[in-house]
């Protein structure tokens, strides 16, 4: 998404995401869950649509608190499907609820969702996609790849001449800590 470095700066919605979130590591499980959910919601739509509705998603899904979302039932699904401020897609909503439950299982085994992700690293994108398809609902190649790039586990978020690249390099995200050939497989 290197073109993003050209179009995002200065944009009302893309700019802040590009400069403060995209490619920066996340270790908070609820924030990781939020990012995964937003990527799921984006499927088939523009990222701008998701960024414009981000605050609505956060409110509708109780701040993406994993424990709260995992406990959602039929009334919550109906509430979400009636919420014009979000993407009202039953398959995506059901996937998000089920993924919260699956992340709880990973938390019980690995201590956190972040630990589970870290334990899987490094992998080429194709292996990540297989793992995510096996582990979660509604996570194909694009969703998995964008999620992992956005949290610092796969390269490709910023060009090396983008000022944000230098900020991310100072943090030394997981993808920068391994031989780049790993990602070519």
UniProtKB/TrEMBL annotation:
Zn(2+) binds at residues 5, 18. Signal peptide: none annotated. The keyword Lyase does not apply. One of its GO terms (biological process) is base-excision repair. Keywords: Metal-binding, Zinc. GO terms for molecular function: DNA-3-methyladenine glycosylase activity; metal ion binding. The keyword Zinc applies. This is DNA-3-methyladenine glycosylase I. It comes from Terasakiella brassicae. The gene is tag.
């Amino acid at each position: 998404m290197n073109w993003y470095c050209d179009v995002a700066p200065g944009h009302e919605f893309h700019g802040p995401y590009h400069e403060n979130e995209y490619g920066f590591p996340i270790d908070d499980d609820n924030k990781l869950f939020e990012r995964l959910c937003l990527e799921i919601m984006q499927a088939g739509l523009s990222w701008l649509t998701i960024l414009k509705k981000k605050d609505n998603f956060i409110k509708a899904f109780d701040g993406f608190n994993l424990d709260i979302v995992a406990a959602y039932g039929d009334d919550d699904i109906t509430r979400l499907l009636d919420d014009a401020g979000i993407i009202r897609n039953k398959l995506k909503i059901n996937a998000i609820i089920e993924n919260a439950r699956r992340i709880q299982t990973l938390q019980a085994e690995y201590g956190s969702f972040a630990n589970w992700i870290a334990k899987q690293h490094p992998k080429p994108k194709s292996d990540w996609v297989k793992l995510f398809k096996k582990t979660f609902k509604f996570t194909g190649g694009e969703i998995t790849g964008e999620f992992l790039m956005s949290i610092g586990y796969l390269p490709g978020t910023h060009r090396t001449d983008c000022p944000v690249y230098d900020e991310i390099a100072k943090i030394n995200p997981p993808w920068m800590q391994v031989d780049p050939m790993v990602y070519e497989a």
